From TrEMBL:
SUPFAM superfamilies in the cross-refs: Clavaminate synthase-like (SSF51197)
Keywords: Iron, Metal-binding, Oxidoreductase
InterPro entries membership: IPNS-like_FE2OG_OXY, IPNS-like_sf, Iron_ascorbate_oxido_reductase, Oxoglu/Fe-dep_dioxygenase_dom
Name used for this protein in its record: Gibberellin 20 oxidase 4
Superkingdom of source: Eukaryota
Domain Fe2OG dioxygenase: 179-284
Any Pfam family the entry gives: 2OG-FeII_Oxy
Keyword Oxidoreductase set for record: yes
Amino acid sequence: MGSLDASLPSFAHSLPVAALPTVNYRALLNGDAAEAAKLLSVSVREGFFYLDLQDGGSATTLENVEQLYQFMRAWFNQPAETKLQDLQSNYTDGYKATGFFAGSYDGTRDAYESLKVSHKALHAAAASPTAGVQSHRGLFEAYLAQANTIARQLLASLATAMRLPPAERFETFHQTSEDSNSVLVLLRYPYDPPAQQSKSVGHNKHTDIGSITVLFTDQWGLQVMAADSQQWEFVAPRPGCAIINVGDSLRFLSQKKLRSCLHRVVPVDGQTSDRYTIAYFLRPDNRVSFIDSNGELVTAEHWHDVKYEVFRATHEEQRRDTVLTGGLEPVEAHKFH
């Protein structure tokens, strides 16, 4: 549990707060070997950390984050029938309403709605972004490029710190010219008064599908499973910093040397507003293969699709397979497929 911080809101003083390390982005850009070694250490142990972007020439990125928050508040507050016109037809683009996946606790469904924007939709001739995204195309193109650059820099710094040979460097599995399921996901958790006792609760525990997640949020609710105590701890929002975590694919590509940490989102007593999250998921090229948590050789595309199907399953079904939690939790005796 992190030490109490006077800057925390009053409701947070009673919460178990994760004491996550902070990595300096500018130092990584400058090739600082000590900072790269720190990045490697936290990626091996915690798999979750803050990335300080305030002095890394990332002012434009942080400005775009604020513009995305403004976009989200306007877009998600449209009538439901308007949002449903952009209903997702796949797992990389479009709108998802609340309740589509399993929720944080047994017997509940998820409590977030999301809008996904992929590189494919912005750049492929055969795809087209939703009308709201189309009207802000410049913002989305800029931010996806910035988040992708940040994530790929983390991969390069990790590869250098691990002294990987050229053919095994993580960047080689994440080529911007190749087809992948890398995507930006905008999420809103509508405020739900406790008295309503909703059956939609948070975001179920999981490990991320891809390699690197670049996340921004200005509200509480995100929890990580502490590496030492195996207890849930809250991640405090920190201005000027992205929250970074290692995903399954990078764990598998590193021969499980790097940690893909369990996390979830739960309601927080004392918080009375909608929660917004901006998450960019860097995923390997679809044809990249690795050994998954079931010990099977699969492609990145297959792992992506299978995991999304498991997100939709019941809690009982999820406990019978390694996929949801990336093999970090035991499973029941009989798997489902």
